[in-house]
Amino acid sequence: DAPLLEVDDLYVEFHTRDGVAKVLNGVSYHVEAGETLAVLGESGSGKSVTAQAIMGILDVPPAVVTGGAIRYHGEDLLAVSDQRRSDVRAEGIAMIFQDALSALNPVFTVGFQIEEQLRVRLGLSRKEARKRAIALLDQVRIPNAARRVRQYPHEFSGGMRQRAMIAMSLALDPEVLIADEPTTALDVTVQAQIMDLLKEIQVERKMGLILITHDLAVVAEVADRIAVMYAGRIVEHSDAVSLYRKPGHPYTVGLMESMPRLDQKGTELRTIKGLPPSLLAIPSGCPFHPRCPMAVDKCVTDVPGDHRLGLGRTSKCHFAEELVGRV
Ligand code: SF4
Ligand code: MG
């Protein structure tokens, strides 16, 4: 059976005044019904661009897809008609963002924005749509949903707005939900509540959830699998348990060392030295070599391929086997 949603060897370039930025360089991942894939990486690693490509919201130009496929139930969304593509995306795949204010229209009530989709796409009457909107707000634990449905986005707090956006994204009962840094703008307590809510909804609806984040701590408890991105490629792909037990790529090691841990209060956090590379001039060999504490000469010249580490794990590091102790 074809995976629910699959990105297969995707290449994207941005044609800028300064040259061609190689933003995605052969990205592959998939998500199945009822599982959570976390896509982890610093900003500029390509995690949002991959999501935008799935949703068909890349800015064209400057973005150009130069290779690969995006398959939903085996159907390549890059190869079908615009109409077919937008139908699939509207009804099968939904996305939420860091900033709910940019996703919600300030001049319409929250209820109207949910109901509009239900009326246009599903042909519900006004009354039915209103009922469904209230039920959705209720499901995302917005108190007094029947009153809240008539309010405008600015009348909601940050956390409540995020919940309203989640409700809106669920209106057409998507099979896949993509959440791009859904909690980054929120304070820590609210962050945890929203993550719990997303997880709960994902389990209840058996959705595939793609959780995009720069923060390993955020996904620690909810991810089934983790894809770590660097310089527009996936440098490690692993089930979450194995990755936390023993990261298979020096970049993942760095991300873990810069994650605050409750059991080690007061210890100084180590952060990865240097900055992510410019995508206009990706370093030779392993793109992580200028920042890698394990780098040797070979890393400067030879591009590491995918090393298979068992259980479907892969790592693009010449020393992946040594790192996980399989040598
Ligand atoms: Fe570091 Fe070399 Fe592995 Fe790249 S291939 S992550 S530079 S050790
Ligand atoms: Mg981003």
Explain the overall architecture.
Helix 4 crosses helix 5 (126-139) and helix 5 crosses helix 7. It contains 13 helices and 12 strands. The protein is 35% helix and 23% strand. The longest helix has 18 residues, at 188-205. A hairpin with a 2-residue loop joins strand 9 and strand 10 (233-239). The model has no long low-confidence stretch (mean pLDDT 92). The protein has helices spanning 47-55, 82-92, 100-103, 110-122, 126-139, 145-148, 158-170, 188-205, 216-219, 240-245, 250-257, 297-301, 320-324; strands at residues 5-16, 19-31, 36-40, 63-72, 75-76, 93-96, 176-180, 208-213, 225-230, 233-239, 307-308, 314-315. It is an alpha/beta fold and 327 residues long. The strands form 2 sheets. It has an 8-stranded mixed beta sheet, sandwiched between helices. It binds iron/sulfur cluster (SF4) and magnesium ion. Iron/sulfur cluster binds at residues 249-250, 286, 288-289, 292, 294-295, 299, 304, 317-319.
Radius of gyration: 21 Å
Structural class: alpha/beta
Q: Biggest sheet, open or closed, and with what strands and sense? A: 8 strands, mixed
Give the overall pLDDT as a whole number.
92
Low-pLDDT segments: none
Pfam families: ABC_tran, oligo_HPY
Domain ABC transporter: 5-256
Keywords: ATP-binding, Cell membrane, Membrane, Nucleotide-binding, Transport
Subcellular location: Cell membrane
